[in-house]
Predict the structure.
Amino acid sequence: MAAGYRPDIDGLRAVAVLAVILYHVGVPWMPGGFVGVDVFFVISGYVIARGLMREAAGGGIHLADFYARRIRRILPALVATLALTSLAAYWLLLPPQLEDYAGSAAASALSVANLYFWRASGYFDAAALYRPLLHTWSLSVEEQFYCVLPVSLLLLVRLRMRPLWLPFAAVALLSFGLSLYAGRYAPTANFYLLPTRAWELLVGTLLAMAPQGTARPLPPLLGHPVLRQLAGLAGLAGILAPSLLYTDATPFPGAGALPPCLGTALLIRLGETRGSRPAAASRLLALPPLVAVGLISYSAYLVHWPLIVLGRIALMRDFTTPETTAVIAATLALAALSYRFVEQPFRRPHRPVPARPRRLGPVFASSLLATLAMAGLGWAGVTSGGLPGRFPDFRLRSIPGTETWNHRTCFLFADQTWQAWDPEGCTRTAGGDGMALNDRVLLWGDSFAAHYVPGLIHHADRLPGRLVQYTAAGCQPILGTASHVVPHCRAFNDNALALIRRLGIRHVVLAARWGAQRDRSVPERLRETVAQVAALGARVHVVGHSPEFPLDPAFMAYHQRRDPPHAAGRWRPVETGSLNDALRAALPAGATFVDPRAALCAGDTCPFAQGDTFLYADTGHFSSAGAMLAVERLLGAGLLAPPRSAAAAP
């Protein structure tokens, strides 16, 4: 097996970390940059297995040495990041935010962050994007893998297993199959947990177990120079195409993770051989600027997300373009400092395993002390309720709204299919005077459709029919839509057409969080859906993207009392660009469109409260009071109004 430093692997690390950073900072042309994590998984599996295989060939695997190296490599920068982030969180985060942060800090220190975020994540967890340590889930996956791989390899070597790669290949296939299954029935677990992610790390492991030699020849099909160049381009495309084309709606991981993982494996394999001219892709990855970023990629990954999250919380808005550039530059600068003054001092140059064991006790003792210290601080933050003494005048109260959605009956969760919907229980209003018994208005969409229900019920006398609620978490009302969060969306939406025919629906209201998935094709696909609904004889009314805010209303109100940049009860919403204009322009003739932002907002701010009454239950869902106000404004703006010709008739 070829030993020595591989600059092209550091180049791959640079590609991976830059994709993740650009995705997280919100660069619009990198909607699938999350695949950078999968590139890291393959690289880690390869590098770790290659080192273990070298040890096995040179005298045996020394578990204590392996774990000491992992501790020196991972723990110092992680502890430094946790410490600095915790200091910033102490000053910035209000008690409920700090309580959640403290739990995640303890989980990150104990290498179970993926389990914490799996258990703590849900559709209504709007604060997920404001969790400074959310990104540490992937580190925990790797660390759990490190607990299994060396022990398994040591046992198989001692048992003289031949071929050695076979059990690892079997586990990889089982893990991939489990990921395909969980992607449909347990998508959150599929994303966060080691059993469904192990195959990605094992792709790199199996690559490291390929036949050894000082010059590993390429397979015959890749031996030809032209084919080698094409293979390098295919490997790069396997990473870059998903980064540029995937969105949050792409089913992932599972089959969606195959291109970046296999592309990474192909690039590693091409750069591994000697005795032939490297592929252009390998030479590209070995360029000094990419190698420089790759060297600091671990620290860059650690610091980038806390910078983004805490920056947005401090500003209480999204970054401007100059601020986005500054955050990226600050990430790389802090990463370089961490690499030079934290990572490097704790790592030793590679040298052969010595004949007598080194003193490893201090390494394990200090790592245990640091881990317990961080976990203890996290425990203190959780048990104290987020250290409320820092902000003694802050109060959090419940805000009514979502309890009227008829959860699990009219508003379906990710683990439910459309068969759980009840047509009788989901007819939410009775017929009014002059209303025919079969006149119905279908409200179809996700939670950003369901949040209008209290207002529609309150204004039932102004509706042209009885309200029928057909909503599901995370399901935009677009035919053919896919969602890795809610795998049953496609079937749920397809059933809407049968529902419209069966119930003779006269009016269909489509509402959603249209910009949730960074999918630029939404307007065009919405147009096709509207056309199919209209072909059934129903009038279609589309409600645009409603205002969202950077924080929950209680947090905004508290900060506003301390430092009021806007009029009381008003705040600048999260920018969605020209999304509503694009939705309006895409609709076919005959469909109506109402813009909630235009109806509710004035200038560059929108109301989040009226006096002491909050209009939002969280960062974007209306409270009961907010829904009543919004529906009143939308009805006044033309929602469910009769066609102009009918209105003008005597």
Remarks:
- The longest strand covers residues 466-472.
- The chain has 26 helices and ten strands.
- The chain has a mean pLDDT of 88.
